[in-house]
Amino acid sequence: MIIGLDVHKDMVYVTRMEEDGKITEQYEMKNSEESWNKFVGKYLLEMPEIALEASTSGKYVARLLRDAGFSVHMADPKKLALIFKSSKKNDREDSEKIARLFRLNEFPEAYLTSKEYDDLRTLTRHRKYLGEEIVRIKNKVHSILSLHGIKIKAKDIFGKKGLEQISRSIDKLSYSEKIVLNDILKRIIDIKEKAENIENEMARI
């Protein structure tokens, strides 16, 4: 069994097609969490092949159904447009064409990443953000220390020994700068711990 989906921001048109090409079901549904929960409950045991276009809304639906356990296939929208060759959009016909193309092995499939890859990409982006945040905060520390002629002799001034030396130099700062520097040092330690946790999770994946 094949299910072709024509996915839009608010609505989805569904075409169910059997292996012999016979259409046994066609209907429109809302693109909402409640509707997809009903969809999963209705079809999961039958394990149909799901085919849809890789639009912005389509990618969301593809990942949702993939994570629910379906075999999901996305079509390259540019290649799909060349196949359809029609300026007139008809959601029912489009969902039917998508299902039929998949059945005939003429479906211009695009790559759908795995859940593990999506997770890894999300963590990688966040690790990059944490790294940039650490650099920004470290530059702030360098600026404060330089302003008061404070030189830290440790090889890594943000390592354990370097942070200890910075802490001992705080007396040279003004009251407000002491508060700022203490806060910054705590944030560096906190972000480093978060970065390490992210790296451990990336390694696990």
Strand percent estimate: 15-25%
Count of spatially separate domains? 2
For the termini, the CA-CA separation is 33 Å
CATH level 1 name of the largest domain: Alpha Beta
What is the number of helical segments per DSSP (H or I, 4+ residues)? 7
Write structural notes for this entry.
The protein is α/β, with parallel strands linked by helices and 205 residues long. It has helices at 33-43, 56-68, 77-84, 91-103, 115-147, 160-168, 175-204, and strands at residues 2-7, 11-17, 23-30, 49-53, 71-75, 109-110. It has two domains: 2-110, YqgF/RNase H-like domain (Nucleotidyltransferase, domain 5); 115-204. It has seven helices and six strands, in the order βββαβαβααβααα. Strands 3-2-1-4-5-6 form a six-stranded mixed β-sheet, sandwiched between helices. It is rod-shaped and about 80 Å long. The two termini are 33 Å apart. The mean pLDDT is 87.
Please render the helix and strand layout as text:
Layout: E1 2-7, E2 11-17, E3 23-30, H1 33-43, E4 49-53, H2 56-68, E5 71-75, H3 77-84, H4 91-103, E6 109-110, H5 115-147, H6 160-168, H7 175-204
Parallel strand pairs: 1-4, 4-5
Antiparallel strand pairs: 1-2, 2-3, 5-6
Helix pairs in contact: 5-7
In short:
The protein has helices spanning 33-43, 56-68, 77-84, 91-103, 115-147, 160-168, 175-204; strands spanning 2-7, 11-17, 23-30, 49-53, 71-75, 109-110. The chain has 205 residues and is of the alpha/beta class. Helix 5 (115-147) runs antiparallel to helix 7 (175-204).
Features:
single chain; alpha/beta; 2 domains; 205 residues; Nucleotidyltransferase, domain 5; six-stranded mixed β-sheet; rod-shaped
